[in-house]
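To: structure subgroup
Subject: Chain for Friday's discussion

All,

I'm putting the inputs and outputs inline so they're searchable in the archive.
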Amino acid sequence: MTSSNLNKNGSHDNLTNSMQDKTRNRPKPLPYNTRQALGVSHLPTPSPTPKSPCFVHSNLNQSFSLSEIINNCDDKLTEYSNLAETAVSVRELSKKLGQAQIQSGMQTVMIVTKPGNLRLVNLTRELAMYLITTPRFGKDHGVTVYVDKALKDVKRFNFQGMLEETPFAKDYLKFWTKELCAERPEIFNFVLTLGGDGTVLYTSWLFQKVVPPVLPFHLGSLGFLTNFDIQNYEHHLTNAMEKGIRVNLRMRFTCTVYRRIIDPDNIIKARRCGETDLPLLITQPAESFEVLNDLVVDRGAGPYMSLLELFGDDQHLTTVQADGLVIATPTGSTAYSVSAGGSLVHPAIPALLITPICPHTLSFRPMLLPDSMELRICVPYNSRSTAWVSFDGRGRVELKQGDHIKVTPSKFPFPTVCHESQSKDWFSSISRCLRWNERERQKSFVVVEEDNSEDEYNEDDDTSTKVSESSEQESLEYSEVKLQNTRGDHNLGSSSNNINVNKNNKQLHRNDHAFACLGKDGSDSSSNNSGGEEEWKVVTRKQNKKNIKKKYLDRK
């Protein structure tokens, strides 16, 4: 084969460039001395990316590769019209996914019970018996139920009594463990939680990879994530199994902790702050967590504030000097983040929330970043103290100088069953739990108008009402007193009297409008704090100018 054949159509050059790119992008192994210091002969290889279970991918041709198309978008120039149309299509697809009705045979149901609550043990037993004995899907029995293995020896659960009560319990009542959820999450088709938001977070902690749909029953304190009433569990479960469900795919974070490795063979001289002979820091992944609510980095028990370096897409964003930092998901926006001054974010918005905890600068405000950004929170080597990090309130670990955490959106969302829809459930939760924007309704005004006609007091329409005679008499007496003060003790002529009469009429006409608040029944409700709805009413007052002038002259 000649060189001309090799270079035909550029195939040989493309192959060479591709091999060079793969070699260039391949991570370099650690030095031999570093591996010896760690006590390992080789570093563990990362696990392969699991195959996407997306139904869109499954309906496409096997030769179709979505990753290749995405890579081509990065390498090739794209017209704006094509880019805009693609963005609109992706938005519409996301909207359809949120409204999609899932119809599947739920053959295996897992029940997660709040630990330490003896009252819920009896409820777990009742719910398990209902699922096992109620015929489903054309069979004479129900579905397979998994309950916590810790309940097997509890007297209230009475496992032996369940075996004697129904023969189906022997084959269709089983027990789950943490190891089973981690190793074989695919055997569960549906999850029921009995508790509050903490029980839902514990379910997310159990399933660090693929999560089955979760139907949470409200048996806790607040219940942002629990929208189903346990009193109607038969109705909810029947609708879910027969009519299908709608799920809210809540975004989770993949948080990877990187530990520093000191390489004694590589010593660099730092010029920062006059320090010298600083060791070269190399980090490697130590552990990873799937987070549903938030990641909290704080100062721990140390007296000093935290000193953290925040990076986004390998670019330095800012230096955090505060008591800590909260990186929250949209689901976790109603948790620690909102207590620290963060915003409420709809769970359908793909975003990362950054909320500082008591920052040392007033200009450090909470912000929202796109989920495409990769965050890194680092503890610099010159920090006065270490930092501590917790994941959904669990797995609290210490970050020493040189350690950092990488935060990226997870490939495994947390699906919760919608009671009505995503938006209705969310607004109902914040209204029920946070009393969002609740206050007494502002009372309206009643406008009292004065008409300078010759007629007596008449009603203008059905919405008008008369002004009482006492109020009219009071206004006349007030005007007369004011006229007397204006006139004084001097004896004026008839012309002056006429001028005063005209002034009197003008002063009467100045009070053209009066305002009052009336309830629906027409009574004065200005002192009523019931907060009920008020009506606008227009009160028209028509005065007889001749009668007023005559009364004034007679009294004179």
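Points worth raising on Friday:
The chain has a mean pLDDT of 75.
The radius of gyration is 37 Å.

D.
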